[in-house]
Amino acid sequence: MTALPGSRGTMALIPRRQTGESMNKKSHFDRAGVEQTMQTYFDGLYEGDADKLAHVFHPTSALTWEQDGALQVLSRDAWLKVVRERPSPKSQQLARDDGILLLDHSSPTTAFVKVKCQIPPRHFTDYLSLIHIDGRWQIVQKVYAVAMTL
Q: How far apart are CA 148 and CA 67, in angstroms?
């Protein structure tokens, strides 16, 4: 971005034209790649497959949620341990209902995905931030809310 003087002493930012060497190596958004990452995420959740989940979550990622008015944060590795130790929804023959509710991107290498999934009686809404790094889409942050059904 280049700063230009605006009216009344303010500065306006305008994007630089990307040409030649300044262009991103990745010049288009890979929606299919994000969708495949989400499918691996859904399959990993339902099957209780921590290895599938580890593949789509960046090692530095964390899960964040609110509980009783307090912010809760769980590292990816601590969460994967929980996944490995609990029975999978599939092994319990629980209903599967997952899907992408919203997919947005701000560049060819960043994406935001809102999804629904469930481990009855818990129904989750996940807000996932993804970055395309090391040749693949990875979830770098998960913020979620859970609703219980009777």
A: 13
The confidence score (pLDDT) of residue 27 equals: 78
The mean pLDDT value for 53-62 works out to 98
In the chain, the DSSP E strands lie at: 2-5, 11-14, 62-67, 70-75, 99-107, 110-119, 122-133, 136-148
Rounded to an integer, what distance in angstroms lies between the CA atom of residue 88 and that of residue 91? Answer: 5
Q: Are 131 and 60 in contact (CB under 8 A)?
A: no
Q: Tokens representing 78? A: 């601590």
Tokens for 68, please give them.
Answer: 């009783």
pTM of the model: 0.82
Question: 18: which DSSP letter?
Answer: P
Amino acid found at 58: H
